[in-house]
Amino acid sequence: xxxxxLVKSPDNLFxxxxxxxxxxxxxxxxxxxxxxxxxxxxxxxESKKHGLLRELIKxxxxxxxxxxxxxESYGGLGMGEIAYTVLAEKLFGGQASYGITWNVNIGIGRMxxxxxxxxxxxxxxxxxxxxxxxxxxxxxxxxxAGSDALGGMKTKAIKQPDGNYLxxxxxxxITNGGISDxxxxxxxxxxxxxxxxxxxxxxxFSTGKEENxxxxxGSSTTTLFFDDVRIPKENLLYNEGQGHYIAxxxxxxxxxDLAAAFLGEAKYDLANAIKYSKERRQFGKAxxxxxxxxxxxxxxxxxxxxxxxxxxxFAGKWERLCSGLDRTAADYGKKMMDILRALSEESSILxxxxxxxxxxxxxxxxxxxxxxxxxEDYPAARSYRDxxxxxxxxxxxxxxxxVIAKMLTKQITKGKIVLExxxxxxxxxxxxxxxxxxxxxxxxATEEAKLLNENQEVVGYLSDMTIxxxxxxxxxxxxxxxxxxxxxxxxxxxxxxxxxxxxxSMNRLAKAFGSDxxxxxxxxxxxxxxIADEVxxxxxxxxxxxxxxxxxxxx
Amino acid sequence: xxxxxxxxxxxxxxxxxxxxxxxxxxxxxxPAILNPFEEHAVEEAVRLKDEHGGKVTVLTMGPPQASEAxxxxxxxxxxxxxxxxxxxxxxxxxxxxxxALYEGARKIIELEGDVDLFFAGKQAIDGDTAQTGxxxxxxxxxxLVTYLIKxxxxxxxxxxxxxxxxxxxxxxxxxxPIPVFFTVEESLNVLSHSPLPYLIKAEKAKIELLSGExxxxxxxxxxxxxxxxxxxxxxxxxxRQRGATLSGTLDEVADQIASKIAPFLKKVS
Lengths: 555, 269
Fold this sequence. Notes:
The structure holds two protein chains of two kinds. Chain A is 56% helix and 10% strand.
């Protein structure tokens, strides 16, 4: 049976409040590390001081962070997917250049080996990653192969008579390109694709100059060159012809753990904005006392709350699906791939949603900082520059929007998801009502497959409805599960903007489909919707934020 | 080398308010933390263990939830943690507390072997009395070095420690025989970041329980009934007046001071 959120709310929604003592301790420890060891040396990191990033990865490894999620037999500490998510969130906010280095190192850089490596490969390489002696990278993108990563791929591996491979080609925009020891490199074979473990120092393998970027200036991004690189057959990852599975699974994980990372960054930026709004005085009072400032703070907190509810909902589901998996078993990769493919649309929802949320949060942060927000001496400017690429990499938000709606319509067409028939009277003030509206939209979309294929914007509207629904549902279910009053306020505040966007997207969709039924359902929903009083919510939420000087929930 | 560290779980002082009617602290809703001075004491003990070998044991007295503070000590690298907990200790003042901890420590010596170095914070941030550590040291009849800021040398063969302590006027370096009792300042060391394996071990560790059942206690020295301390009044001390600034040549200033203190000198004679 499908567990899709299109059909019903999850029975066992995981919320951050359920995190184990161990995960809480991990969160506190990771945050302390970030605040004491990383954020204070931001200027040095941003100046790309030679060797510093590796030194800081080693520092994190010495404290055990690189060992989380790795089986004990490969030098790891064990721990599950929730712990992994906690680390992704906590080791990012405040220093995104370091954050992205870290995120790739234990995320897409390591995952191909962790999931698909043979026992021999894992025994050989994993302890070095855990100890921080090896840094990892993931190399898929090429000049002609961006969003169309497989279709445009030119890097080629040719099998030699002795069973080894000869690799030729170039990869661009590779995070950790200049500082890694182990690269998972994707290449075309005569038939299909394969992934290879390429190690620093292999003859014919070199890296280009550091790119000059808009943001994430401290992180390493380079081109990789492969000129007749001889790859021993022991370094083929998984099977010939199945490299694309590895690429996609890694992206499923990567998109999700970036969502967790963006959540961490958004919390950091909100805290800065709150503190600054209390310090900055105009017209004889702190700008925090002005309604439009409070609106920005309350909106950001509500978005962060929704993002957090979604991220941990995913983490809990992922961990539950992984329970009992043996990380040392030969079929671990295959099983993990099945799990992650089933979570694929949720992973894309979260990557898109949380990067968009972070964009809104940093934009308002710069606005709250006023003229100082435009100055590099204050933290808002760097956050603003760093954020921009989050909507571009790991699948542009456009590609991810395509993934969301297309994967769901495909599952509906194949009968894997069976939509509910809409009730005669849809109550837009309930989760079930919102779901019924979404079902109506998907039902129409599957009938109009041709129109959907030919008009990508329409796919976008459907995805926006889906994204908004997923987070609204996550936000309300969490508030309901805890009975917490603040959470309910935040869920209401979030739904003001997001359900508006949901209905707006539905309206555009109805027009594109020329569907009176959809349009009428949408109009009725708008008139039946008891929208909360935003001003009152802004007052209550911002009062709490100003008292706590940070986002008040979560780990 | 066996090091025993006495610790206390305290309310986070930065979040505590005072009830001026009863003269007590309002502790409700205030998060409990490990007394910061004792965090440094444990850090030092673990550092010395890493350098000289041996083990670090920690002891606290308090309600069951005080085991959280003990876990923090284990996360910092302590090897074993004991919680002395019993209703009979409720309401203990520093006299009764130091007695109970003394008996608890004697039990630990019986179980874990002789102790070479005893550590405690210079004071707890809730009561600020600085009496419990010295109280325990006195009962053991140990040399006491308060306000420790540096361990200069440990000689296990000749059984002495050279240590520097803070005094009201400066610093003092002393050579003391082992076993010895230290109460420590925060400036003693810089706290290190606990590695995850320690944190995980601490989270899973078993806290050893001591109570009136397994510790040999004279109940006539325990709890509120046998705590002679009385709080008569709690108040915020008045701010000291800012001193006057004198100006002029050295001789002129000296004259001004002399004339100001002259009336007091007469009174004394």
